[in-house]
Design a protein that fits this description.
The longest helix has 18 residues, at 170-187. Helices cover 40% and strands 21% of the residues. It is an alpha/beta fold and 217 residues long. The radius of gyration is 16 Å and the shape is globular. The protein has a seven-stranded mixed beta sheet with strand order 1-3-4-2-5-6-7, with helices on both faces. It is built from seven helices and seven strands. It starts with a helix and ends with a helix. The structure holds guanosine-5'-diphosphate (GDP). Guanosine-5'-diphosphate binds next to helix 3.
Protein backbone atom coordinates (compact mmCIF):
# COMPACT_ATOMS: atom_id res chain seq x y z
CA UNK A 1 0.00 0.00 0.00
CA UNK A 2 1.23 3.49 -0.77
CA UNK A 3 2.16 5.21 2.50
CA UNK A 4 0.38 8.38 1.45
CA UNK A 5 -2.92 6.51 1.32
CA UNK A 6 -2.50 4.82 4.65
CA UNK A 7 -4.14 7.49 6.77
CA UNK A 8 -6.99 7.87 4.35
CA UNK A 9 -7.97 4.22 4.05
CA UNK A 10 -7.40 2.84 7.49
CA UNK A 11 -6.70 5.76 9.82
CA UNK A 12 -3.40 6.18 11.59
CA UNK A 13 -1.83 3.39 13.62
CA UNK A 14 -2.82 4.68 17.05
CA UNK A 15 -0.49 2.38 18.96
CA UNK A 16 2.45 3.69 16.92
CA UNK A 17 1.18 7.25 17.35
CA UNK A 18 1.11 6.77 21.08
CA UNK A 19 4.65 5.40 21.15
CA UNK A 20 5.78 8.50 19.29
CA UNK A 21 3.88 10.75 21.67
CA UNK A 22 5.58 9.18 24.67
CA UNK A 23 9.04 9.35 23.11
CA UNK A 24 8.65 12.91 21.78
CA UNK A 25 7.39 13.94 25.21
CA UNK A 26 10.83 13.05 26.56
CA UNK A 27 12.66 15.43 24.22
CA UNK A 28 15.51 17.22 25.91
CA UNK A 29 17.25 20.20 24.37
CA UNK A 30 20.89 19.18 24.11
CA UNK A 31 22.82 21.54 21.85
CA UNK A 32 22.37 24.21 19.18
CA UNK A 33 25.10 23.36 16.70
CA UNK A 34 26.38 25.86 14.16
CA UNK A 35 28.91 23.37 12.85
CA UNK A 36 28.42 19.69 12.14
CA UNK A 37 31.24 18.71 14.44
CA UNK A 38 29.19 19.99 17.39
CA UNK A 39 26.44 17.45 16.74
CA UNK A 40 26.14 14.29 18.82
CA UNK A 41 27.89 11.23 17.38
CA UNK A 42 26.39 10.13 14.08
CA UNK A 43 24.77 6.97 15.43
CA UNK A 44 21.21 5.87 16.06
CA UNK A 45 18.37 7.66 14.26
CA UNK A 46 17.50 11.28 13.72
CA UNK A 47 14.59 13.23 12.24
CA UNK A 48 14.99 16.76 10.91
CA UNK A 49 12.22 19.39 10.97
CA UNK A 50 12.10 22.35 8.63
CA UNK A 51 9.80 25.11 7.48
CA UNK A 52 9.73 28.77 6.71
CA UNK A 53 9.45 31.14 9.65
CA UNK A 54 5.89 31.42 10.93
CA UNK A 55 4.81 28.22 9.16
CA UNK A 56 3.70 26.75 12.48
CA UNK A 57 6.64 24.38 12.94
CA UNK A 58 7.16 25.15 16.63
CA UNK A 59 3.46 24.79 17.35
CA UNK A 60 3.48 21.48 15.47
CA UNK A 61 6.45 20.15 17.45
CA UNK A 62 4.75 21.19 20.66
CA UNK A 63 1.50 19.48 19.61
CA UNK A 64 3.29 16.30 18.50
CA UNK A 65 5.23 16.05 21.74
CA UNK A 66 2.37 17.12 23.97
CA UNK A 67 4.72 19.72 25.41
CA UNK A 68 3.68 23.35 25.58
CA UNK A 69 7.01 25.01 24.97
CA UNK A 70 9.32 22.36 23.60
CA UNK A 71 10.34 24.29 20.51
CA UNK A 72 10.66 27.66 22.21
CA UNK A 73 14.36 26.99 22.63
CA UNK A 74 14.73 26.95 18.83
CA UNK A 75 13.40 30.48 18.63
CA UNK A 76 16.20 32.07 20.59
CA UNK A 77 17.45 35.06 18.58
CA UNK A 78 20.65 34.12 16.77
CA UNK A 79 19.54 30.58 16.11
CA UNK A 80 18.83 31.29 12.47
CA UNK A 81 21.82 29.16 11.47
CA UNK A 82 21.93 26.42 14.03
CA UNK A 83 20.81 22.84 14.17
CA UNK A 84 18.87 22.54 17.42
CA UNK A 85 19.22 19.05 18.83
CA UNK A 86 16.65 17.41 21.06
CA UNK A 87 17.62 14.01 22.41
CA UNK A 88 14.65 11.66 22.74
CA UNK A 89 16.51 8.63 24.06
CA UNK A 90 20.12 7.46 23.75
CA UNK A 91 19.45 6.20 20.20
CA UNK A 92 17.08 8.85 18.85
CA UNK A 93 17.07 12.58 18.20
CA UNK A 94 15.00 15.37 16.72
CA UNK A 95 16.87 18.08 14.83
CA UNK A 96 15.03 21.37 14.54
CA UNK A 97 16.36 23.33 11.57
CA UNK A 98 16.06 27.12 11.69
CA UNK A 99 12.97 28.68 10.19
CA UNK A 100 13.83 30.11 6.80
CA UNK A 101 12.47 33.09 4.98
CA UNK A 102 14.15 35.97 6.75
CA UNK A 103 16.50 37.73 4.37
CA UNK A 104 18.44 39.51 7.12
CA UNK A 105 21.39 37.14 7.04
CA UNK A 106 24.39 38.52 5.10
CA UNK A 107 25.09 36.75 1.82
CA UNK A 108 28.42 35.20 2.85
CA UNK A 109 26.93 33.77 6.03
CA UNK A 110 23.97 32.45 4.09
CA UNK A 111 26.28 30.66 1.69
CA UNK A 112 28.19 29.16 4.60
CA UNK A 113 25.00 27.98 6.23
CA UNK A 114 23.75 26.51 2.96
CA UNK A 115 26.98 24.57 2.73
CA UNK A 116 26.60 23.30 6.32
CA UNK A 117 23.01 22.26 5.72
CA UNK A 118 23.95 20.56 2.45
CA UNK A 119 26.70 18.62 4.19
CA UNK A 120 24.32 17.65 7.00
CA UNK A 121 21.92 16.13 4.47
CA UNK A 122 24.66 14.47 2.44
CA UNK A 123 26.75 13.07 5.26
CA UNK A 124 24.56 12.40 8.25
CA UNK A 125 24.01 8.65 8.43
CA UNK A 126 21.55 8.84 11.31
CA UNK A 127 19.10 11.00 9.34
CA UNK A 128 15.94 8.99 8.59
CA UNK A 129 13.37 11.53 7.55
CA UNK A 130 12.53 15.19 7.02
CA UNK A 131 9.38 16.77 8.40
CA UNK A 132 8.40 20.03 6.68
CA UNK A 133 5.79 22.40 8.07
CA UNK A 134 4.04 24.71 5.63
CA UNK A 135 0.96 26.85 5.90
CA UNK A 136 -1.92 25.09 4.13
CA UNK A 137 -2.87 28.39 2.48
CA UNK A 138 0.51 28.78 0.77
CA UNK A 139 2.38 27.02 -2.00
CA UNK A 140 5.82 25.48 -1.71
CA UNK A 141 8.46 28.19 -1.38
CA UNK A 142 11.81 28.03 -3.16
CA UNK A 143 13.36 27.10 0.14
CA UNK A 144 10.80 24.32 0.71
CA UNK A 145 11.74 22.99 -2.71
CA UNK A 146 15.43 23.22 -1.89
CA UNK A 147 14.79 21.14 1.23
CA UNK A 148 12.85 18.59 -0.84
CA UNK A 149 15.78 18.39 -3.24
CA UNK A 150 18.28 17.86 -0.45
CA UNK A 151 16.14 15.00 0.82
CA UNK A 152 15.57 13.55 -2.64
CA UNK A 153 19.30 13.58 -3.37
CA UNK A 154 19.73 10.80 -0.84
CA UNK A 155 16.31 9.17 -1.13
CA UNK A 156 15.26 10.45 2.28
CA UNK A 157 11.53 10.26 3.05
CA UNK A 158 9.77 13.59 3.55
CA UNK A 159 6.47 14.22 5.32
CA UNK A 160 4.80 17.58 4.87
CA UNK A 161 2.41 19.01 7.43
CA UNK A 162 -0.05 21.43 5.88
CA UNK A 163 -0.39 23.51 9.02
CA UNK A 164 -3.16 25.79 10.27
CA UNK A 165 -5.73 23.60 8.53
CA UNK A 166 -8.32 25.06 10.92
CA UNK A 167 -8.06 28.28 8.89
CA UNK A 168 -9.74 26.58 5.94
CA UNK A 169 -13.09 24.87 5.64
CA UNK A 170 -13.18 21.14 5.07
CA UNK A 171 -13.62 21.43 1.32
CA UNK A 172 -10.84 23.95 0.85
CA UNK A 173 -8.51 21.97 3.09
CA UNK A 174 -9.20 18.79 1.13
CA UNK A 175 -8.58 20.60 -2.13
CA UNK A 176 -5.27 22.00 -0.87
CA UNK A 177 -4.25 18.50 0.22
CA UNK A 178 -5.11 16.97 -3.14
CA UNK A 179 -3.30 19.74 -5.02
CA UNK A 180 -0.15 19.22 -2.96
CA UNK A 181 -0.35 15.45 -3.39
CA UNK A 182 -0.64 15.86 -7.14
CA UNK A 183 2.32 18.24 -7.21
CA UNK A 184 4.49 15.93 -5.10
CA UNK A 185 3.56 12.84 -7.10
CA UNK A 186 5.25 14.50 -10.06
CA UNK A 187 8.32 15.89 -8.38
CA UNK A 188 8.91 14.04 -5.10
CA UNK A 189 7.60 10.50 -4.91
CA UNK A 190 9.39 10.09 -1.54
CA UNK A 191 7.18 12.76 0.00
CA UNK A 192 3.86 12.32 1.78
CA UNK A 193 1.55 15.08 2.95
CA UNK A 194 -1.31 15.60 5.38
CA UNK A 195 -3.49 18.31 6.90
CA UNK A 196 -2.47 19.47 10.35
CA UNK A 197 -3.75 21.87 12.98
CA UNK A 198 -1.94 22.44 16.25
CA UNK A 199 -4.85 24.37 17.68
CA UNK A 200 -7.50 21.78 16.82
CA UNK A 201 -5.31 18.68 17.06
CA UNK A 202 -6.12 17.69 13.49
CA UNK A 203 -3.70 15.16 12.05
CA UNK A 204 -1.60 14.84 15.19
CA UNK A 205 -1.89 11.05 15.37
CA UNK A 206 -1.31 10.69 11.64
CA UNK A 207 1.94 12.64 11.92
CA UNK A 208 3.01 10.81 15.05
CA UNK A 209 2.51 7.47 13.30
CA UNK A 210 4.83 8.58 10.48
CA UNK A 211 7.45 9.68 12.99
CA UNK A 212 7.15 6.37 14.86
CA UNK A 213 8.04 4.57 11.64
CA UNK A 214 11.07 6.76 11.01
CA UNK A 215 12.18 6.40 14.62
CA UNK A 216 11.78 2.61 14.46
CA UNK A 217 9.66 2.46 17.59
P1 LIG B 1 7.18 28.74 13.40
O1 LIG B 1 7.84 30.06 13.20
O2 LIG B 1 7.13 27.94 12.14
O3 LIG B 1 7.76 27.95 14.53
O4 LIG B 1 5.64 29.05 13.73
P2 LIG B 1 4.84 29.10 15.12
O5 LIG B 1 4.57 27.74 15.61
O6 LIG B 1 5.52 30.03 16.05
O7 LIG B 1 3.47 29.71 14.61
C1 LIG B 1 3.41 30.94 13.91
C2 LIG B 1 2.05 31.57 14.12
O8 LIG B 1 1.03 30.75 13.61
C3 LIG B 1 1.72 31.76 15.60
O9 LIG B 1 1.02 32.97 15.74
C4 LIG B 1 0.84 30.58 15.92
O10 LIG B 1 -0.05 30.84 16.96
C5 LIG B 1 0.11 30.37 14.62
N1 LIG B 1 -0.25 28.95 14.45
C6 LIG B 1 0.57 27.89 14.52
N2 LIG B 1 -0.10 26.75 14.32
C7 LIG B 1 -1.39 27.07 14.13
C8 LIG B 1 -2.58 26.32 13.87
O11 LIG B 1 -2.60 25.08 13.79
N3 LIG B 1 -3.74 27.02 13.69
C9 LIG B 1 -3.76 28.38 13.76
N4 LIG B 1 -4.93 28.98 13.56
N5 LIG B 1 -2.67 29.12 14.02
C10 LIG B 1 -1.50 28.49 14.20
Amino acid sequence: MEPRDKGKRTGPDLAAANRAKVLLGKAEFTVAAHALKQLPADAGVEIACAGRSNAGKSSALNALSGRKDLARVSKTPGRTQQLVVFVLDPERRLIDLPGYGYAKVPENLRAHWGETLGRYFRERNALRGLLIAMDVRRTLSDHDRAMLELAASRGLPVHILLTKADKLGRGQGGAALQAMRAELAESDPNATVQLFSSTKGTGVDEARAVLAGWLSI
